[in-house]
Amino acid sequence: MLAPQGRRPLLVWLALSAVGLFCFPPALFLTLPVTLLVGWFYRDPERKTPDNPRAFVAPADGRVTEIVRTSHPYCGPAVKIGIFMNALNVHVNRMACAGTVEYLDYIPGRKWVASAPKASLENERFFLGYQTAHGRVLQCQIAGLVARRIACSVKKGDSFAAGQRYGMILLGSKVDVYLPLNAVLSVSVGARTVAGETVIAEVKK
């Protein structure tokens, strides 16, 4: 499956490959590999989200680089889990839990390496907050050193299921998720995550 953001660039390179095939066949040695690379970069594989209403799943493919207690005006005191996406990871981002969107905030910023802690405070980022059965949850897409742009098609009032797609960061970077303090973590720093599948925390009964 292809992410919607990849349709236009893939069509452009498919067209260039077709033109090269009929007009200058040697050009395929350039256009065909690039076309395949574009299709691979924008891949969006299906994921099987656990059927557990108390679980929070990873919002991004990647590696956990940060777990800290913090606070934000939208959600208050929270546990923040930072997941760094490298250039080889799937770049589509997903909801950590079912909920209804209440808060959106885009902040222009700098281009620090996304794995650095200061990236969460200074880089270009997009906050998405939503009300869940367990309280308010906040996710933040953070652009890194080479990320081209943040894509998010969410509006206030939209409702999502756990693991549902909501956007992507072109050329990777980082996603922070702010969870309620009563969430029991299932991951530690260094853990690998699969968006929509890996359980990162759970609210106990």
Report on this structure.
The protein is an alpha+beta fold and 205 residues long. It has two domains: 2-40, no CATH class; 53-201, Glucose Permease (Domain IIA), CATH 2.70.70. Helices cover 17% and strands 40% of the residues. The protein is built from three helices and 14 strands. Strands 9-5-6-7-11-3-2-13 form an eight-stranded antiparallel sheet. A three-stranded antiparallel sheet has the order 1-14-12, with no helix packed on it. It has a three-stranded antiparallel sheet with strand order 4-10-8, with no helix packed on it. Helix 1 runs antiparallel to helix 2. It is elongated and about 65 Å long. Keywords: Cell membrane, Decarboxylase, Lipid biosynthesis, Lipid metabolism, Lyase, Membrane, Phospholipid biosynthesis, Phospholipid metabolism, Pyruvate, Transmembrane, Transmembrane helix, Zymogen. The chain crosses the membrane at residues 12-42. This is Phosphatidylserine decarboxylase-related protein. GO terms for molecular function: phosphatidylserine decarboxylase activity. One of its GO terms (biological process) is phospholipid biosynthetic process.
Task: Provide the descriptors you would attach to this structure in a database record.
Glucose Permease (Domain IIA), alpha+beta, 14 strands, single chain, eight-stranded antiparallel β-sheet, 205 residues
Here the CATH topology of the largest domain equals Glucose Permease (Domain IIA)
Q: From the 3D coordinates, which CATH architecture of the largest domain would you assign?
A: Distorted Sandwich
CATH classification, class level of the largest domain: Mainly Beta
Name the structural class. alpha+beta
Please mark out the parts with pLDDT under 50 across 5 or more consecutive residues, or reply none: none
Largest sheet: 8 strands, antiparallel
Name the CATH superfamily classification of the largest domain.
Glucose Permease (Domain IIA)
Shape: elongated
User: Helix segment count?
Assistant: 3
Percentage of helical residues?
10-25%
Radius of gyration: 18 Å
> What is the spatial order of strands in the main beta sheet?
9-5-6-7-11-3-2-13
* Number of separate strands: 14
Strand/helix succession: HHEEEEEHEEEEEEEEE
Mean pLDDT: 87
Strand content: 35-45%
For the termini, the CA-CA separation is 36 Å
Total individual domains: 2
GO molecular function, one term: phosphatidylserine decarboxylase activity
Pfam families: PS_Dcarbxylase (PF02666)
Transmembrane segments: 12-42
GO biological process, one term: phospholipid biosynthetic process
